[in-house]
Specification:
With 173 residues, the chain is an alpha/beta fold. The chain has helices at residues 58-71, 90-98, 115-127, 137-153, 165-172; strands at residues 19-29, 32-41, 46-53, 78-81, 102-105. It has a single domain, classed as 2-Layer Sandwich (Nucleotidyltransferase, domain 5).
Length: 173
C-alpha cells in the first residue's frame, strides 16, 4: 500500500510530534549485518525511537514505531518513510491508522524526499560506525546506542541554535 508524499520535502515543524521520519540502515560487521530502524522527530532532529536487529523485516519496523508512539503523544502525527516493503505492508499502515497518524512516503528511488533520516544515518556512520572495528554484535550495539545518546543529548546542531536535540526540545517547552 503506497501512500502519497504528504511531507513533500517540508522539513520543518513548529512543535514536537508534528512530523516524524523513519528508515532502516544496515550495519555490516564480521561478514554479518545488523539493521538499525529509527524514528526521528523533524522538529528537533531527535531520534525518539530505534531498534537494532538481525533481520530487516516488518517486526523491526513495527517495534520501532510502537516504541515511538508509546513514548510520545501522537495526534495526527505525520510519519514519513520510503517505499520499502515494511512500510507498504498492510500491518504497518493499519497500525498507523489505528493511532490516527498520517502516512507519507517518498517517491520511489528518491532519497532526497527522506533526507532528514538519511542525514542522521550519514552522521552516525561517519562520526561513529566507520571509526570502529567491531569484534562482536554486542560491541556494535553498545557503540550505536552510545552514539544515539550522544547525538540526542550532547551533539549540538546549528539548526537548533547550537543546542542538542533534547536541549532544544526542553528549552522550547
Amino acid at each position: 500500500m503506497v501512500s502519497d508524499n504528504v511531507l513533500n520535502r517540508e522539513f520543518n515543524a513548529s512543535s514536537p510530534n508534528q512530523k516524524w521520519v523513519t528508515d532502516i540502515t544496515f550495519l555490516p560487521y564480521n561478514q554479518k549485518n545488523l539493521y538499525l530502524s529509527a524514528v526521528l522527530d523533524i522538529y528537533n532532529n531527535e531520534v525518539i525511537a530505534y531498534r537494532i536487529g538481525n533481520r530487516n523485516d516488518l517486526n523491526l519496523v513495527l517495534e520501532t514505531v510502537q516504541e515511538a508512539t508509546y513514548k510520545r503523544k501522537v495526534k495526527k502525527t505525520l510519519l514519513h518513510s520510503d517505499q520499502g516493503f515494511q512500510y507498504t505492508h498492510k500491518a504497518y499502515n493499519r497500525f498507523l491508522k489505528q493511532r490516527k497518524m498520517v502516512v507519507s512516503m517518498s517517491r520511489r528511488g528518491n532519497c532526497w524526499d527522506n533526507v532528514c533520516i538519511e542525514s542522521f544515518f550519514g552522521h552516525l556512520k561517519t562520526e561513529c560506525f566507520h571509526l570502529h572495528t567491531f569484534e562482536s554484535e554486542e560491541q556494535l550495539i553498545q557503540v550505536i546506542e552510545e552514539y544515539i545518546h550522544f547525538y540526542n543529548h550532547e551533539r549540538f546542531q546549528k539548526k537548533l541554535k547550537n543546542l542538542s536535540p533534547v536541549e532544544f526540545r526542553t528549552k522550547a517547552a
